[in-house]
Amino acid sequence: MIADGDKIAVGLSGGKDSSVLLAALAAFRRFSPAAFELMAVTVDMGAGADYSVMRGFCESLGVKYIVEKTDLYEIIFNERKEKNPCSLCAKMRRGALNGVISREGYNKLALGHHADDVAETLLMSLLYEGRLNTFKPVSYMPRSGVTLIRPLIYADEKDIAALCKDENIPTVKNPCPVNHVTNREYMKRLIRQLDEDSGHIAGKNIKRAIFDTSRNSLWDDE
């Protein structure tokens, strides 16, 4: 994922996942065999969130920090009045991130997706699209020329949450009005229920089916 001379921008939403990712990459710089630069970028949707704690966090890590102000909230919720805003919001936020990365001369974007996100995305694809698909650890985006990496992809969400709490890593409350009422949140609850019903093996087996490259992996090129 990381090569010598890389300039990596972390998409810092203020949630636990991206905050832990930034802390981990900042620590990794100290002993990484590959020298790389690190920057954090927050896309401000214009919903009134205060990111001053993130600025202080980045300063404590010695990481450059940029807050990219946008009017995404106004466009998505007030002008378009999207009933299912998540897909459009994700695309527009990714576009804003790519704009900053291009402007600053960075070549990689690191996102805080974890193993539970992978499993939830697989079920969403299966149930809502009728196909088996989920995101990869590394993806090249030819339109922007940016390589997207997900360093926490094998980590479980519960472990990330525990680390965030134990290390007092700061977070910012998600200002999105549909937070916790999305299809992804439903997938999260569904997997949790399946886990309880199966003796806590369902979630592990979904992840194993994705990550086990000795079998027919969804990440195989063929």
List keywords for this structure.
about 220 residues, alpha/beta, Rossmann fold, about 15% strand, globular, six-stranded mixed sheet
What's the CATH architecture?
A: 3-Layer(aba) Sandwich
Strand content: 5-15%
In DSSP terms, counting alpha (H) and pi (I) runs of 4 or more, how many helices? 8
Helix content: 40-55%
Order of helix and strand elements from N to C terminus: EHEHEHHEHEEHHH
CA radius of gyration is 18 Å
CATH topology: Rossmann fold
Order of strands across the main sheet: 3-2-1-4-6-5
Classify the secondary structure makeup into a structural class. Answer: alpha/beta
The low-confidence parts are: none
Give the overall pLDDT as a whole number.
91
CA(first)-CA(last) distance: 21 Å
Structure, explained:
With 222 residues, the protein is α/β, with parallel strands linked by helices. The protein has helices at residues 16-28, 52-61, 72-79, 86-104, 115-129, 157-166, 183-197, 202-211, and strands at 7-11, 37-44, 64-69, 108-110, 138-141, 146-149. Strands 3-2-1-4-6-5 form a 6-stranded mixed β-sheet, sandwiched between helices. The chain is built from 8 helices and 6 strands.
Quick rundown:
By secondary structure, the chain is α/β, with parallel strands linked by helices.
Topology:
Blueprint: E1 7-11, H1 16-28, E2 37-44, H2 52-61, E3 64-69, H3 72-79, H4 86-104, E4 108-110, H5 115-129, E5 138-141, E6 146-149, H6 157-166, H7 183-197, H8 202-211
Parallel strand pairs: 1-2, 1-4, 2-3, 4-6
Antiparallel strand pairs: 5-6
Helix pairs in contact: 1-6, 5-7, 5-8
